[in-house]
Design a protein that fits this description.
By secondary structure, the chain is α/β, with parallel strands linked by helices. It has helices spanning 15-26, 61-74, 138-141, 157-166, 186-194, 292-312, 317-324, and strands spanning 3-11, 32-34, 48-49, 59-60, 78-80, 84-88, 95-99, 104-112, 116-118, 134-135, 149-153, 172-176, 198-201, 204-212, 217-225, 231-235, 238-241, 245-247, 278-280. It has two domains: 3-118 and 245-323, FAD/NAD(P)-binding domain; 134-241, FAD/NAD(P)-binding domain. It is elongated and about 65 Å long. Bound molecules: NADPH dihydro-nicotinamide-adenine-dinucleotide phosphate.
């Protein structure tokens, strides 16, 4: 078990974490980034990215994250494959965190960029049939449903993108939504409604997933018509839950203020938490925009504010740069 010291400890490795790392390294903070359970974050389970500025052609999410990682390392970030399982924020800077490996990480400033994860419906059969027909990631599991019938549950951008993606594999895709309007962007809605393989079932909630976890897996959904109140069986081979995301803030409960959705509360317009030297960036503090580019923006802001915080502590960044040469 080792002890690591850094001026800037970054927890999480999505666009927010990598941007904080790039800015932090260039400001001579020699950051250590602890990657977490899903290195690269949510973009690693996405395929096409069309809205990250700077790329005229469609790029792939995993490729973009590899590029961010390479850039962060190139400018001087040390990236560690570990997951923070405990952190002491109450004692002030330097902050002590403990990794799953048993290693200790000390950071004069900390950027929390742990992101968010897919939400589940929490209805019977969902967990039992997880990986047996029920999934929350079309790009990970869509391939298994070649020529089959699948359902996507949700009405936001994620649900519509997953439905469109699944048309590459499945024979029939049904979007099941609990209301009669989608909240997805108009352009995505247009593509969805125009696609010959996709149908939409409105005003339906999923009451249960049914099938045989030990055998054939998912066979059907029990849907409730929210207008008539009637239940009906809906036969499918696969079901993709795409109802949004929850922030990964378990580690910070009781240590930082969280809002009712579990997101870290920051000073409005900044990545500053109530604890000096502790910053939050990306989806872990943003329940409104949740884009790769906005996460990258707040990661940058967190590194800039960390630099100001360290200057206030009179931590000698230039001295570190000389020592590193
Ligand atoms: P959203 O919160 O936007 O949408 C969640 C959807 O799931 C809503 O339609 C909601 O229904 C439905 N839902 C929530 N809970 C339940 C439930 N218990 N049962 C049934 N349905 C439920 O989440 P997304 O993941 O779609 O998007 C998150 C953010 O990421 C958004 O800001 C989105 O714009 C962004 N995003 C952007 C992309 C892009 O730009 N390419 C791609 C993917 C996401 P209701 O509408 O009734 O509330």
């Amino acid at each position: 078990m080792a002890t690591h010291y850094t001026k800037l400890l970054i927890i999480g490795s999505g666009p927010a974490g990598y941007s904080a790392a790039i800015y932090g390294a260039r400001a001579m903070m020699a950051p250590i980034m602890v990657q977490g359970l899903q290195p690269g974050g949510q973009l690693t389970i996405t395929t096409d990215v069309e809205n990250y500025p700077g790329f005229r052609d469609v790029i792939q999410g995993p490729w973009l994250m590899e590029e961010m990682k390479a850039q962060a390392e190139h400018v001087g970030t040390r990236i560690v494959w570990d997951t923070i399982v405990d952190i002491d924020l109450a004692s002030g800077s330097p902050f002590r965190a403990v990794g799953d490996s048993g290693d200790e990480y000390w950071g004069d400033a900390v950027v929390i960029a742990t992101g968010a994860q897919a939400k589940w419906l929490g209805v019977p059969g969902e967990m039992e049939l997880g990986g047996k027909g029920v999934s929350a990631c079309a790009t990970c599991d869509g391939f298994f449903f070649r020529g089959k019938r699948v359902a996507v549950i949700g009405g936001g951008n994620t649900a519509v993108e997953e439905a469109l993606y699944l048309t590459n594999h499945a024979e029939r895709v049904t979007l099941i939504h609990r209301r009669d309007t989608l909240r997805a962007e108009r352009i995505l809605q247009q593509r969805l409604f125009a696609h010959p393989k996709i149908a939409v079932l409105w005003n339906r909630s999923v009451e249960r997933f049914e099938g045989d976890p030990a055998g054939a897996g998912l066979t059907h959904l029990v849907l409730r018509d929210r207008v008539t109140g009637r239940d009906e069986d809906f036969a499918v081979d696969g079901a993709f839950v795409a109802i949004g995301h929850a922030p990964s803030t378990q580690l910070f409960k009781g240590k930082l203020e969280l809002d009712e959705g579990g997101y870290i509360v920051v000073e409005p317009g900044t990545p500053k938490t109530a604890i000096p030297g502790v910053f939050a960036a990306g989806d872990v503090m943003d329940h409104t925009y949740r884009q790769a580019v906005t996460a990258a923006g707040t990661g940058c802001m967190a590194a800039l504010d960390a630099e100001r915080f360290l200057s206030g502590l009179s931590i000698d960044l230039q001295g570190h740069a000389e020592a590193a040469e």
